[in-house]
Amino acid sequence: MTFAVIRFGGSNCDLDVYHVLNDVLGAPTDLVWYKDPVGEYDGIVIPGGFSYGDYLRAGAIAARTPIMNSVKQFASVGKPVLGICNGFQILVESGLLSGALSTNEYPKFCCKWVDLRIEKTDTTFTSKFKKGEVVRMPIAHKEGNFFADSDTLKSMNLHQRVAFRYVDSEGDATASANPNGSVENIAGVVNKTGNVLGMMPHPERASESVLGGDDGFRIFESMVEYADRL
Amino acid sequence: MSLLPPTDLETITKRLNRPPNPVEEGCFLNLWSEHCSYRSSAKHLRTFPTESDRVIIGPGDDAAIVRLKGDLVLAIGMESHNHPSYVDPYNGAATGVGGIVRDILSMGTRPIALMDLLYFGMPDQPKNLYLFEHVVEGIAGYGNCIGVPVVRGETFFHDAYSGNPLVNVVCVGLAHEENIVTATAQRAGDALILMGSTTGRDGLGGASFASRDLSEDSEAEDRSSVQIGDPFTEKLVIEAVLEAIESGYVLACRDLGAAGLVGASAEMGAKGNLGLHIDLDRVPLRESEMTPYEILIAESQERMVLEVDPSDAESVLAIAEKYDLNCSVIGEFTDDGQYLVEFEGGVVVDLPINFLSGGAPARKSEHEIQEVGVAEEKIPEIRDDLATSVLKLMASPNIAPKEWVYRQYDHEVQIRTVVKPGDDSGVLRIEGASGIFGIALSCGCNPAHITLDPYNGAAGSVLENAMNLACKGARPIAIVNCLNFGDPEDSTIYRQFAESVRGIGDMAQTLSVPVVGGNVSFYNESDEFGTAIPPTPSIGMVGIVEERGTQTQTSSHAHTHTHQIPGTRFADAGDTIILVGATADELGGSEYHSIYGCSGGRVPAPPADPQRLIGTVIGAIDTGCVTSAHDISNGGIAVALSEMAREGNIGATIDLTGIGDWDLPHHATLFSESHGRVILATPAPDAVLGRLRDIPHRTIGTVGGDELIIGIGGDRVVALPLRRIRDAGEEITRMMR
Which candidate from A13, A16, A214 shows the least CB-CB separation from B555? Predict the structure, then answer.
C-alpha cells in the first residue's frame, strides 16, 4: 500500500503530510512532482501551500495542470483523495468538490487552532471519529471562506456532504466560532461518494500531541484503513 | 560629477592609476557603502566574542553556522530592512524576509523559522498605523507563501520611530553538516551560475539608499530603490538550490542582496582570492535596454549565484528547468585576481577584485566617549491608584497582546512549533538530534533603557533574551543582532553605538554565548520629523532545550513525545508562586515612566552573577515540576503576574511584602524592571525551592480564583477581576478593526 503527496510549485505542507503518513503512521508515501506521471497509488493527498503563489485565484492554476486529470480519474474509481487548505481550494477549482473558497470575512491571513464538529462518519476519512464529536486542529489561510449558492447548499445538506463545521467548545456552530465567514460554518466537504474530502483545517499539524493535539491523525488513520480494505 | 565621496574617488584613482569609468564608480558607490562595508563600525564589532566549541562559521559569511548535535547544524542570520519599509511598507517588509531567508539558504540549510522585530511610531497616529498594518501584511504575505513559520516577534512603539520605523528579521536554518556551503569561491575554472528571477530595474542602488537619511520626499523619490518581492519564485529557488546542493553540485553559493550581482559575485571571488570574468549578455533580463551598470547593481529579488564545476553545469540547469526558474552560466572564476565584466563585446569593468570588495578605507569617526551620569528623575504628580496603573500598563501598545499580529503569520507550517507566538520564547522540536528536544528562540531589546544608559540597557537586553530562553529550560548558544542607530557622525549617537556594542559584548562574554552575526543600520533619521531613532541594538538569541528524562507517551501512536515545557500562563489552582531574582528601585526607562511622562532615573543594571541565575532557573525547570514560568520585563512584577493570570484565565493571591529594600515604594515594587527575575508556579514547591537555594527567591502566593490580588505590608494594593485585565489588553485589536 503506497500513498502519494502531490507537490506543485509553491506547495509548502508537502513534507509535513509526508512526515505524518510515512514516519508517524508508517504508511509508505511518495512525493510526486506535478510534472511527473502518477503511478499506482492507494490514496492521494494534495497538501497546503500557495501553489503558483495563489496568483489569479487560490488553487485556480494548479487545478488546470494535466496531473489533475489523473487525480480525477483516480477519484472516479472510488480511491481516496484528500485536499488540505490549498489542496481544498484546488479540488474546488477543479470541480471535484462543490462550492467556492473566497477571501476571509476579516480579510487577513488567520492562523489559529479551532474547534470542529464531526458531521459525518461514513466517509473514507472520518470513520475513526464519532458523529457530533468536537475536535481541535489549526487553520492557516486567507481564502477559506466557503461559499455555495442556496440550491447547492440545500442539496449538500440533503445528501450530507458537509464533513466538518467550525463550532465553539460546546459544539455549537455560532457566528463567533466561525473564523472566516464560511456559509453555515462549513470547514470541510466531501463528494457524493465520500472518497474525496476537502478541508481548510490542517490535520497534519494536529497529528502529534507534542504540537498541541493529535485529533487530525485520525483522518489519516481512517484513510489508510479504508485503502487497506479496498 | 561623481557621486563618490572625494576621498574615495582619490583613493580609487590612485590605486587604478586612472579614474574609474562610470560603471565602475557605481560598483564602488554600492560596495563601499556603509551598508555593505561596515566602514564606521567594524572596529567596534571586532570586540564581540564570536567563538565557542559549537561555532563552525562565525560572522562574515551570509549567515553563521552553529553545531546543534552530531552532524545537525543550524544557520542563523539577522538583517534590517528599515528604509525600504518606510517607503513601501508591504514590499519593503516582504523583501526583508526574502533577503534573510536567502542568506540562510545560501549556506545550504533549509529555513525553518523566522522572528520579526518591529519598532514603530505610536499607533495612535494614522500614518504609523498604516505603516504597521502593511509591514505586518508584507511579512505575512511573504513568509506564509514560502512556508517558513514566524515563531516569535517583538513590537515596540515610540514617537521617535515615526519617520523611520525599523523592520528587523531573524532567520534560522537546519541542515546536515556535509551540505554546508559558504560564499568563498573555491577554484579557478569553475562556472558562475545565476539562478532565479530575471533582472530588472527594481531596487536600483538600494545599498547606497540604505546608508542615508530619509527625507520628506522619500516616498515618491525613492520608490525605485524598493524591490518588489515574489515569494512564489523564492519558494521555487529554495527547493531548487537545496536540490542542487544536496546533489553535491554546488561549491559556493551567495544570494543577491545589497549591491546586486556585483555585490554577490565580487565578494565570492574576493573571499576565495580568485578573479571573476562575467559576461553580462548572459544575464536573463526582465526589461529591455538595461545598461551594464543597471544589470550589475539592480537588487531584483529571488536570485542566487552558485559556483559549479563546468561538468555539472548542465545538471544544475536541469534542476532549474524542473522548477521553471531562469538559470544561466554567466561567468568563470579565474586566477588573475581581476573582476572583469564584459557587455556587448566590450570590457565595462576591470578592477582588482580585493580592492572592489574589502578595499574600502575605514572611516575615522572617532569621538571621545564620555561618561554620562544617571539623569535626574523627573516625575509629575501621578493621581492614579496602583490598580489603575496596572490597567494602563496592560493597555499600553508595548505590553498589550500582539495576537492581531501573529495570527497573520503561519506559525505552524513545517510542524515543529511546540511553543507558539505570544510566549516568552518560541520552541521548535528538532528530530534526529539525540539528547536534544529542540531549540528555543527569543528576540528584542529595550530602547527606552538603552536611550538612558546604552551600556546597561544593551547588556540587560541580552540577559533578558537569555532569561526568556531559561523560562523554557533552554540554554543560549548563539546571539545575532541588528545595530540600528542614527547618524554615527553625531557624537551622542556614536557614543550610544559604542556603548551598546560594549554592553552586548560584555554580557555575551559573561554568559559565554558567541555573537555570530548581524548587521549595522546607521542613518535612521527622519527629515520630516527632525528625529533620530532611539538607539536600537536589537538581539536575536537561539538556545537548546535538552531532552529530559521525564518523557511520557500519552498518545496511541508511538512517535509522539510530550515534553513538559512551562507556559507563561498560570495552569492550576493551588500552584505555589515563586519570585526569583532581586527587585531594586530601577524605574529609569520603564514602561511605567513612559505612560506617565516621567524621565530620567536609574536604568536596571544586570545582576552580579547572571550565569548562575540562568543555570539555576533552568535547573528548577528541569525538575519537571514547574507548570508556569514567565520572565519579568516591561511593566515589572505587576504586569508579569497580570499576563500569567490573563493567559491562564485564572487569578492569584500575591503578597509582595519584603520584596526589595525596606524603603522601596509600592509603585517601584510593582513596576520596577530590574533584570534577572522570573515568576515560577509549581504544584511541588519543595522540589523547586530546593533548586533555588543559591539565588534570591521568595514564595509570593498561590494560583486560584478569578481576581489578581496583590498585597504589600498588609495593604491590598491591587485587586483586579480577570475580565478587566483582559479588556485592557484589547487595544491593538480594537484599533485594527
Answer: A214
